[in-house]
Amino acid sequence: MTAGTDAETPRAPLALELLVHGVGGTTPERMLGDPRTVCLAGDDTAGVHRRACDADAEQHPERHHEAPVPEAYCWSNLTSGNGSRALWLLLLPFMIANLAHWMRPPSHRQRSARGYGAAVRLLALTLTVLLVAAACEVALDLVGWQCAGSARCVRGSSWLGFAAAGRGGWWSEPGRRLALAALVPAALTALLWWLSHRTWSAYESQRPAPGAAAAPGTPALAMPGFWYGRRSVARLRSAHTAAALLTVAAAVTVPALRHDRGGARLPLQVLGWTLAALIAALAAAAVTVTCRAARSEAGLDDATDHGTSRALLAGALAALAAAALYAGWHRPAWASTGRLPAAQAVTALTVLQGALIAALAVLAALLHHSPPHDPEDGSPGAAAPSAVAGPPSQADGVGVGSGAEPSAVAGSSPQAVPLRGLGGPAVGLLGCGLGGVLTGGVAQRAADWLDRGRTPGEAGSPLAGPPAVLTWEASVIPVVLGLLAVTAAAVVWRLRRRERALRGEVEAAYSDEQHRPARTRQIAGAVARAGLTDSAPLLVAVVCAAAFVLGAAAVTGALTGGGTPGERAAGAPAVVAAGAGAAQAMGSWLVGAGVVALVALGRRAYRDPAARRTVGILWDVGTFWPRAAHPFAPPCYAERAVPDLSWRMESWTARTGGRIILSGHSQGSVLSAAAVWQLDPETRGRVALLTYGCPLTRLYGRWFPAYFGQRSLHGLHRDMHAWRNLWRRTDPIGGPVGIPGPGEPVDRGPLLDPVAYGRSARHPLPEPVRGHSGFQADPAFARERAALLAQVVQEGLRGSGKALPAQGSSGRSSG
């Protein structure tokens, strides 16, 4: 007996399948399988689309009882666009530093957690200072001080002739040249401020759906202010902008002050020391604001700090203007020789970054060894389950092996968190190293360009070159790359062994087929390559350990005696001297080539969909998180996407009383889970979650355990009642969720991939190994979606107190 023939049996409510795509993006037409679509809400950046024939589904629910109404949320333009957005890759160190904030281990030690956040924000502040210091090194030191002060360098640079020291013009004095060159780093600072303010207006200032106040113990992702970083980003932007302007002011003031100490008039010396004290005081204020700019997530924090922010920015601008006037004072006996004092500043900044990373490591270790204790919610101290796949009757097939890879069962247990909880400090170190490579590469390429082919610092060159510490750091890059190559070779060798070991499992999974070695190798290789994702902690550990040790050696070499590696090894044996010279030359070339390669890769990623899929997962993971540490990082697209989804689900269910299957693939599954966390309990009871190619545990649970650990995911499953996750062992990104505890398991898999080994009457053409894509073409997808919809509809009817129809009587098919 169906709902349409018995008036006493309630008709099932209208159902909606809200599709959320993953990395790489797609079009609404492809997601919905129809060339005619309409945009119901949103804009060209992100919007909700339907097929044209389903646009009025709410007015005619009787037409949509056979299957849920498909609806697509497209958000790809939040992270991609024209080729010019590839320049965001130059802000990659800022994005990496921001990631370190979110990678802290879960713990009940609130004081240590606050200290960890403050240390990450200070580390991010040093990256801003490093970037601006690099611009000062090029504009003020190499161009304004060294090249303009050398007749040989200016001779071939007509554009610099007006400021040549030997010309005797108004701009020929060193202080005035420095004041003019300061326009370059000041303009860079203004550009960073403008980009951050523009994206802040488009992302952080978008209010999420109103929710209840956070109760004690509420997961962070369920807090109403988690995706609303308006105040914190504004405060950080003011502090970083002020610190950048003060860096420029110090670069202009210190050379003039050093000259005045040699016998200038007393009033000029007093003015210089007063200005230096003002810069130091404002810098201390910027550091204080940075330390206190923690996020407020328990509610929508609309408070503003316009007074403090404006005062800090006004003070920094005034200090920069005063520094330009002070340096431009007439000093007839002043001549520019050697390098500016920026060399010592860059070295001190590098040492400070190392100290902050060491402090982060100590705090992360303390947090890691004091996890929260909650056995009922799958505490981090509890043992992880040995298997996460459901019973064979619940999966589409046994897959290649019936169990999950041990390394894929990740959560927030101490054994599953990579690098023993030191992932945040390691990523912070990578951000500092990448920042050093970019800044050093720009400085050395600029020096080579100004010197027209000669090597700065050597005999016959008019330039002393960039600070020696940058040359030392560049010289260790070939060694780090060599260690990384050895590690990669070991991983590849292990991959080959793993592929050979898997061939037997592949043939056992397709026992009824006639086996061919080439096909078996293809499937086994896909499974083995998918496991390479779990080797990332090893590669990160090798790179970070080598970078920290060799970077400390480079700073020590720059501090003890000065000079470049080639100069220091001049009196050593021929082999040592040749090796030092080769490392210095190769490192200088590599840092310059790295900058060019990064920009070229970014432009290709935004123009070529295949290249975007290759680098998209790393970029989309990095920009998923709010800008909690660095305001100049690329904007967080989830601060637009998550409120979009939560607003859509809450408004639609309140208006129609219907049910929703939230269907997320890859990164879309992460956005879907984050949106479900933001729903009120009533709406959450009307939503079922279907994820596939899901990196929630494999990537996010391992690297961000405080937010996506097993304890948090278990709580989400308990609150929603209906969740299915499809996974394959050939998928290099997704995997099982692995939620422990009683109740119906979330995971369905591993799914058989490929669905057929060879040709047959049912599969006349060769079936591809789909890996991370094509889940909707799998027969298990339709079955699980239909079962999930039936479950959420039954829950809704049971909650309303109405009579329940017989199992399967809703008339829905798999679509």
From TrEMBL:
Keywords: Membrane, Transmembrane, Transmembrane helix. The keyword Membrane applies. The chain crosses the membrane at residues 86-103, 115-135, 178-196, 208-227, 239-258, 270-290, 310-329, 341-367, 475-493, 538-562, 574-602. Coiled coil: none annotated. Residues 378-395 have a biased composition (Low complexity). It comes from the Bacteria. This is Integral membrane protein. Residues 371-414 are annotated as: Disordered.
